[in-house]
Write a structure and sequence with these properties.
Blueprint (H helix, E strand, L loop, with lengths): L8 E2 L5 E4 L10 H9 L1 H9 L4 E6 L8 E5 L2 E4 L7 H14 L8 H21 L1
Parallel strand pairs: 3-5
Antiparallel strand pairs: 1-2, 2-3, 4-5
Helix pairs in contact: 1-2, 1-3, 3-4
Length: 128
Amino acid sequence: MGCTRETWEFEQENILEQKGVLARGEDPLNKRIDEIRQTPLGKKLFGGLSSISVKVEYDPSMPLRTMGYIGGGIIRYGSGLQEPVEYLLFHELFHVYQTKEKAVALRNNEIEAYVAQYLFHKILIQLM
């Protein structure tokens, strides 16, 4: 499936998934996902995620104002995310990209993710 496919399927527990494209649906992060996808760096990131099944799930057991990549293409977030959410979401998507061909996260991955998040921030400022 390509990144432009626009069919979305509901799964149990209100989780949305589409192979190769970050899930969209009734989730409050929809707008942020679309905003990331429209940026030059976001387009490249989503191109790299085209072969991965990515899920974004609300998890009430997560600490307040947190989001994290737990592996297997799953990003979870808790209540009370603070604006701007795009940077945190981009950061976690970058972790999905980093580990798409390996199962273990490395310390360097965190550094790379923060550098990518910084570059994403600079691009968003230029677009405003």
